[in-house]
């Protein structure tokens, strides 16, 4: 590994993730990186990689307390457009599942959550909603699938991927939890059977505060 390749890695990381960071904290770590970069021998990269980990964790920690974007999405049930940050009830925790009609694990996750929602809401007062990342031409598929599954919670579509870009995620299933103050405090990509229980544990913790 050369110094040049490490530098390129850090520059790309900064450009892609800096919007989620507190700049003073980010700048401090960035300055430490360059001080170390010019002082170490090319054969000793362990400390540089440790700083990379520190930088990544710092940025991601701030990413998970981010303000909700005002990006417009569409309510598939009634056809109305609404700002994403206006879909949340103040003072109540909300879980958002991002999915797509072609995503099998997404459908499995939402199905499992829906089956448990009634019991969960006896333990914690929270809201649940979904956002499809399908293209606009698939809106009918989103609607028909939601109705076939008996969804009784809000479901939206991010047809132009504007919200996806605002939240800076690449793949679905993607789940976020928004706390009572309207901050994103939890993000997770992917789904394994039973993974919804981890989400609900976080919901109970936040709802009790």
Share of β-strand residues: 15-25%
Please report the total strand number as a whole number.
8
CATH top level assignment of the largest domain: Alpha Beta
| Structural shape | globular
- What structural class results from the helix and strand content? alpha+beta
Domain Thioredoxin: 62-208
Subcellular location: Cell envelope
Organism: Taibaiella soli
GO molecular function: oxidoreductase activity
Summarize the structure.
The chain has 209 residues and is an alpha+beta fold. It contains 7 helices and 8 strands; from the N terminus they run αααββββαβαβαββα.
Write a structural description.
- Keywords: Cytochrome c-type biogenesis, Redox-active center.
- It comes from Taibaiella soli.
- One of its GO terms (cellular component) is cell envelope.
- Residues 62-208 form the Thioredoxin domain.
- The chain has 209 residues and is an alpha+beta fold.
- It folds into two domains: 3-63; 67-207, Glutaredoxin.
- The chain has helices spanning 3-17, 23-39, 46-63, 104-123, 139-148, 162-167, 196-207; strands at residues 66-67, 72-75, 81-83, 93-99, 126-132, 155-157, 174-178, 183-189.
- An eight-stranded mixed beta sheet has the order 1-8-7-4-5-6-2-3, covered by helices on one side.
- Helix 2 (23-39) runs antiparallel to helix 3 (46-63).
- The chain is globular and about 60 Å long.
Question: Topology, pairings included?
Answer:
Layout: H1 3-17, H2 23-39, H3 46-63, E1 66-67, E2 72-75, E3 81-83, E4 93-99, H4 104-123, E5 126-132, H5 139-148, E6 155-157, H6 162-167, E7 174-178, E8 183-189, H7 196-207
Helix pairs in contact: 1-3, 2-3
